[in-house]
Amino acid sequence: MIQLKTVLTLVATAALAACTTLGPNYQAPAANAPAAYRAAAPVAGAELQRDWWLMFNDAQLNALEAQALQASPTLAAAAARIERARAVFGATKADVLPRVDVGANAGGLRTSAKATTTPVLNGHPVTFEGETFGLSASIGWELDLWGRVKRQSESAQAQLDATTLDAAAARVALTADVAAAYWQWRALADETVALQRVRDSRAKAFQVAQTRFDAGSSTTQDLERVRAELAAADADVTDLPRRQALLANQIAALTGQAAAELKLTAVPLAAPPQVRTGLPSELLQRRPDLAQSLAQLHAATAQ
Asked: Please, which pLDDT band fits residue 103 given cuts at 50, 70 and 90?
């Protein structure tokens, strides 16, 4: 009778615990964003993909991005953090399941004829030889009365989500840095031609100004002004290789290779692809860093 009362008490307690869970339930913060914006209507185009740089159809950029993703120590560390978070989440999920422990043992048995306790049959000692085996099993189950294990599992899942989103944010930052440096390098290649034309034009203007000054038809101030413009154009043309080298070094560092091994080809810039735009609030929701913050808030709420 006492055992029956104990079982009924546990069942009733578990039923009440099912209605009671530690801590508040997580609710994502509401964003007060308007349904429409006055700036501009959405532009039709392709949906932005995870490997967004492929939309440019630039083989050189595609190769750089692939090499950066493969060589990045930041992404490797992020992948290791994801594996640790998965292990923690798996451990918390295991807490809600029954635990079964099984043990086995084996041994040998032999009695000596000289032993004092050896049985005797018809005046002769009886000896035994054989093997012994044993098997044991136990089952344990933690009763989650107040939802502690459930909250731990929920927090671990949210932390796993946050870690995964952190890796996604690192991936976005890395690929964006590679693309930005690459396009700046390409732009400088086009700018080199334009600045050289400006420099040639300033050189011709200076020759004309010098001729007029020698003829006495212009002042020293006019000549020095044209000379300063030519010097500025010369400085711009001279500085371009240095700026390109800095960008090339940045690309080499991002892709994990030596600057001397980096081979870039200057080709004319093409028109960028048209990407479908939406509401600014929708664009913010796609940012992995913001989604990571929400996941961390969820994990903290469940703890």
From this structure: low
